[in-house]
Amino acid sequence: MPSTLWQAGRIARPALYARPQDPVGRVLAALQQAGFSRAPVWDGRQVTGALTARTWQRLLAEELDPDRVTAAQVQEPPLPQVTPAAGLLEVLDGLARAPAVVVAAPGRQPGIITYVDVVRDAAPYLWLRELEQVLRVLLYRLEASGPRGGWLALLPPAQARRIEEYCRRDGGSDPLDYVDLYDLRQLVEAGWDRWFRSWLSPLDLGAALDLLDRLRHARNDVAHMRDLSPGQRQELEQAVRRLREPVRRRLLDEPPTRPDRR
C-alpha cells in the first residue's frame, strides 16, 4: 500500500512534562488539575523517563512523601518514543506496549499520543484502509474464477507494471496487496457484469464508480493530511460504509465456492 504522510508530530498533544529536579508532589498536582495520569520526564534535551500510575502506587506502598522526592529519583523507564516523523504503524506498535507514546526529538519539548488521539485523527485514514482491505479480500475470494492472467490483466499494461514494480521494490509477494482505490475503481468498471455486480448490490455501476471516485479524492486529502471538516468526515464515513457493508456482509455469510471459469 503506498505510504501515507500521516505523522506523529502533527497529532501529538503537548505533554505535561516533569523536569528531573521537579518535586513529584508538584508534578502530581499539575497532572490532577489537567486531568492527566502520566508525564514524561524531560531534561531539556531528551526524555529520560516517565511518571505513571505505577509511580504513584510505589510512592504509596513505600510511604514516600511526594514533596520530598524528585522526578529523577522515582521515574519509571520512558514510555515508548517515536520521532515527529513517525507513521501510524510505528505509533500503534508503541501503543500496543504502553497506554501512551511520547513524541520526542532532541531539544524539542515532548508531545504525547494515546489511542484516543489516534482514533480521532486517524479515523478517516483507517476507514479508507479498511475499505481497501475489504475490496482486496473480495478480489482474493473471486480470484479462482477471475480473468485469465489475474486481476491486473484488466488494467492498462503500464498501470499493471507500476503495481508489480512497487510490489518488488517493497519486498512484497502479491501485487494485489498494492492495488489502491484508483486501481480498484478500474477493476470494478472493467469486471462489473462478470464479477462485481452481485457483490456491490444494491449499487449500480454508476453509483459504485461515483463512490470510488469520491473516496479516491478524499484519500488524497487524508494522505496529505489536509484537514477535513466535520461534514466532510461524515460524508466520507457514509460513503465508505455504502461500499464496504454489502461486500463485508456477503464475505461473512457466504463460504467460498468452487471456481467457475466458464
Shape designation: elongated
Rounded mean pLDDT score: 87
Amino- and carboxy-terminal Cα gap: 32 Å
* Uncertain stretches of 5 or more adjacent residues: 258-262
Describe this structure in words.
The strands form 2 sheets. Strands 1-6-5-4 form a 4-stranded mixed sheet. Strands 2-3 form a two-stranded antiparallel ribbon. Residues about 260 have low confidence and may be disordered. The protein contains 11 helices and 6 strands. By secondary structure, it is α+β, with helices and mostly antiparallel strands. The two termini are about 30 Å apart. It has helices at about 10, 25-35, 55-60, 70-75, 90-95, 115-140, 155-170, 180-190, 190-200, 205-225, 230-255, and strands spanning about 15, 40, 45-50, 80, 100-105, 110-115. α10 crosses α11 (about 230-255). The protein is about 55% helix and about 10% strand. It has 2 domains: about 10-115, CBS-domain (Roll); about 120-255, no CATH class.
